Amino acid sequence: MTYHIHFNKPYFTGKEGQYILDAVQTGKISGNGKYTLLCHEFLQHRYGFKKCLLTTSCTDALEMAAILLNIQPGDEVIMPAYTFVSTANAFVLRGAKIVFADSGSENPNMDVDRIEELINEKTVAIVVVHYAGIVCNMDKVMQLSSKYDLKVIEDAAQAIESFYINKKGDKKALGSIGHMAAFSFHETKNIISGEGGMLVINDPQFEKRAEIIWEKGTNRSAFFRGEVDKYNWVDIGSSFLPSDIIAAFLYAQLEQIETIQAKRLEIWNHYYTGLKYLEEENMISLPVIPRHATNNAHMFYIVCKSPEIRDGLITFLKSRGILTVFHYLSLHKSPFYEPKHDGRHLEWSDLYSERLVRLPMYFELSDDQVQQIINSIKDFFYKK
Amino acid sequence: MTYHIHFNKPYFTGKEGQYILDAVQTGKISGNGKYTLLCHEFLQHRYGFKKCLLTTSCTDALEMAAILLNIQPGDEVIMPAYTFVSTANAFVLRGAKIVFADSGSENPNMDVDRIEELINEKTVAIVVVHYAGIVCNMDKVMQLSSKYDLKVIEDAAQAIESFYINKKGDKKALGSIGHMAAFSFHETKNIISGEGGMLVINDPQFEKRAEIIWEKGTNRSAFFRGEVDKYNWVDIGSSFLPSDIIAAFLYAQLEQIETIQAKRLEIWNHYYTGLKYLEEENMISLPVIPRHATNNAHMFYIVCKSPEIRDGLITFLKSRGILTVFHYLSLHKSPFYEPKHDGRHLEWSDLYSERLVRLPMYFELSDDQVQQIINSIKDFFYKK
Fold this sequence. Notes:
Two copies of one chain form a homodimer.
Chain A: H1 16-26, H2 34-47, E1 51-55, H3 58-68, E2 76-80, H4 85-92, E3 97-101, E4 123-129, H5 138-148, E5 151-155, E6 163-165, E7 171-173, E8 180-184, E9 197-201, H6 207-214, H7 220-224, H8 244-255, H9 257-280, E10 284-285, E11 300-304, H10 307-319, H11 347-355, E12 356-359, H12 367-381
Parallel strand pairs in A: 2-3, 2-4, 4-5, 5-8
Antiparallel strand pairs in A: 1-9, 6-7, 8-9, 10-11, 11-12
Helix pairs in contact in A: 1-8, 2-8, 3-4, 3-6, 9-12
């Protein structure tokens, strides 16, 4: 099958090659080079993050968070079942038991009103996933964090350039609210480096150790700042740093963030306007952006009325040469975790798993193509 | 301090940018794309590796090996104390106890005649580090592996394009002998991608699970081959795949491997010839290449007669604008592992730690520069 409209296409701003060559010419293309520092500064400044550390993936950023939380076998971590495997894997690798929460009816985010019932004396952290870059009620999550002394990790893989708006109307960047946050720059994200990620550390107690874990368990960063006279093995750790080639690519993207975001929002709004009628006719559901959230146009998804309709729609669009995809298989039902899950039925997680479909979304998608997708979806529902 | 001769300078073949742009144009720059496959094929074919999987670092390749060996808390792993932290960290992350072996008198590799005394019923693996790309007596190591049913992991970080020659005179590429092997493409290596690595799987029993662990614990690879109808969370794992941007960069390097190796060997031989006299005068020791080993010119090091002379030499060369470096701090004496070490004195490991110095070694180093370094070393020893 050849698709004439792909699901994703990585965007090339044009400056990536130049910056990579420049990185080579600086004489340092391993981790923590010139472009890594430029990315850190850009992101800290733009979003008010306390400390950024680029990683080779969002998965790796989550693994760093799990190590920093000093997760021990038996510790419990609460997170949505409707998420990518890495959200859970990072904590499972340190021996945690995952307690899966259900999504809400409004969107696939965790139902924050039903988190408290999952907390017990073994709970150490809540991992909030900002699905499609849309935030849940973080005031409620942070209140639980204070009440039960739990750490909050934001899985902000999809959430760059998205914000939380509190009751007073103050805007805070996603990733700046929890104790730590993990971002992704995977090729399917708004800002990309093929594979890539970043850990954000907002709670200063984790800053020093984060640098050590990032640098393979050594105090190399302190050494280069002249704080210790040789660098040594002082802790567990891994090689979490990406090549400066990756950072150079990423920096070219970050410089274009406003252009990229404007285009993605235009596509998102085109979809929304074009498909609104189908929602009004009760044929599909469209994303809901709550009052406390902004939209970063990471993803455009629709929710069908049954799994059969969803699968039929994907097949129909495929016959028109349009690639659409579904995800996630609920993690509590995965071959790996089902035997370890406590058996609770997670109705909404299963519903999104069976009925959600993601439409093509990338910078180079033209108005005509978006309109063609909208028309094809209408054709499917009106059996044309 | 400005150095006019650096310790390392990453080499750019000229085709990296073109291949990266091509990767972008294929529409896939995440892991396991076109250039990842090209690198896998190139390396499997050239070295007779059974299966290659690029990783984001050699550290990550070692971590994959530790997961594949199913290391459990309390399992013992034997490895040299004179190595980079990642050799050990990868196994410590899975709960292993590290049993550090001493180096030999001939070169910093493990003294293979003293491995057997470290084996007990808890031992599960021997990690051999091919220091400076020079191999130890692998026949002896593989005999121990058979006798005690131990797995052998080759830490081949420095060992690309180097070979083991057995008694019959047969040559085998380093990385093709043990059950698994880990390579590095860090910017200081012969073939580079800034940060980067590769796991080699020679024992077919690990192949299938390796792909799963590589893909975040999912059966995604099998899914794309059509072996399963959807991909799912089936095991622990991480995001070990590098971006195809990294693979594109690496492929440009691999294509030039013979040119790169020829130049490095020329530099190595220049150093060796130029410094031989100092060894004959018993002022320094030069690297020994045993009859069973080839030389890939990864590194040129000299061993001084005392720590004071070593430190004096580094300082002297620095005053001449030449950057030389030492390594490693013996891991059994590190702040992290000393309290866990069994107290054995590791004489040779400490000796190399205190007396070894690495000289500049990179493609663009000119004959004149090498001669200048040789002359400066002679000046130091003859107090000029």
